[in-house]
């Protein structure tokens, strides 16, 4: 992606889809050009968490909510150290933010981080197009990107489309290492008094493999008295067990799970040792592959904070936060035999019957496809962190009795 922050704030901008559909609007954020996969998010709130979610790496996010930027940007809500979206598409950006926590406008933040966006287009029409045709490559162009090299006129639409078609596709993309931490770091457990527990003194230690982890995820575990060691995506099985974990966690992240052979191998090493295991989103797809199931690309994915999912183990229906374009291909109607014991689909999306969770019946391992930390969304699924804690507690007691 190349960007420039120079030029008029309301410069003309063009959005070009790989199937030739074109939308014309005004620049929002940085001026320049960007490419990625066009996807839409149905969340009415939480745009700051969306922008900073590493799972959106190399994606151009279309907001279905018409008004974006109303609450500005603060320094407390980001899920990571930077904005990860490749581009941003909104209909009616706020002219002036209004919130007591706001320290700058969303437009300023996008400019500061070089994120090219477009506003003033019919995002409802664009969303309907993506629902009908599927997620696809897209380019956003403004400022110098729309001017011919000779300076005699604007670049032809056909030339812009050609640039879009040169961009890489999401299918086959291996992206986790690009967004994960490079060095291990520790999130200390939080005690009953709200203070950090000294390292090594927590009841449980978890090794979290960072495939694109969001900041709220280790925080949710820390709230439950867990010391979390966040490891790079390149961590080996030996690295995982070097922290002497009571449990192992595999995070969300971007890209095609079919490319994640290293993560699958590490997870299989964890399953072989029967250590309590929990995975979310990309981690759910990794568990699926580790158990021998396939994965596939969804037509337009699930992205937003209002997706209904049923926990088939309890019958409870939850409203959940999603961000995934791939899913696990596992049978819904039977228990499957795997190399690590019996496995079944534990959660399912009520909109389209997509697999939303897996669990092993003969050892303590489970995963969900959605985001139970839901910092800017519903908290219906927060119990999953308690379920993980319960598995570690049971394993610890069994080890003590042995």
Q: What form results from the Cα inertia axes?
A: globular
Oligomer: single chain
**Estimated structural class:** alpha/beta
Q: Helix content range of the residues, please?
A: 10-25%
N-to-C span: 56 Å
Detail the poorly predicted runs: 4-8
The total of helices stands at 10
Number of beta strands: 21
Strand content: 25-35%
Biggest sheet character:
11 strands, mixed
Radius of gyration, whole Å = 22 Å
Rounded mean pLDDT is 94
Detailed description of the structure:
- Helix 8 (261-273) packs across helix 9.
- The chain is of the alpha/beta class.
- The protein contains ten helices and 21 strands.
- The strands form three sheets. Strands 11, 12, 13, 14, 15, 16, 17, 18, 19, 20 and 21 form an eleven-stranded mixed β-sheet that branches.
Outline:
The chain has 402 residues and is α/β, with parallel strands linked by helices. The chain is 23% helix and 32% strand.
Question: What key attributes describe this structure?
Answer:
402 residues, alpha/beta, 11-stranded mixed β-sheet, 7-stranded mixed barrel, 10 helices, 21 strands, globular
Q: What's the SSE blueprint?
A:
Elements: E1 2-4, E2 12-17, E3 22-29, E4 31-41, H1 47-51, E5 59-63, E6 67-68, E7 87-89, E8 92-93, H2 106-112, E9 116-119, H3 123-133, E10 136-142, H4 157-166, H5 176-179, E11 185-187, E12 204-209, H6 216-222, E13 226-231, H7 237-242, E14 247-250, H8 261-273, E15 277-280, H9 282-290, E16 294-311, E17 317-329, E18 336-338, E19 341-349, E20 355-360, E21 365-368, H10 383-401
Parallel strand pairs: 4-5, 5-7, 6-8, 7-9, 12-13, 12-14, 14-15, 15-21
Antiparallel strand pairs: 1-4, 2-3, 2-10, 3-9, 4-10, 11-13, 16-17, 16-19, 18-19, 19-20, 20-21
Helix pairs in contact: 8-9
